[in-house]
Amino acid sequence: MAGLRMDGVAVAEYARTAEEAAADLDSAAAEVGGGGVSDESYGALGAQIGLGASYGRASGALRQQLADGAGALRSAAEALGHVATRHGNQDAEAAELIKRAGRLE
What we know:
mainly alpha; 0% strand; single chain
């Protein structure tokens, strides 16, 4: 691709940032409550309308969304890591070719 420039260091940093964000989402998911909450936790009205069960479903959905987000970030971090590695390998190969070309002259 003509005109495309890539900074391998920046891509590797993006990968590290994505991995850290995934860990943050995992931590947030672990802190989302729901356990130990019953209908009675919200009083008679809460018990009557099933507020505890609703809260449990909502917290479960939130935990799943956080886990899915963490997985997506890890996947992106892995892909970015592959890109940075390939870019670094190409730089090393280009440097070796330049060295060889200098020896041939």
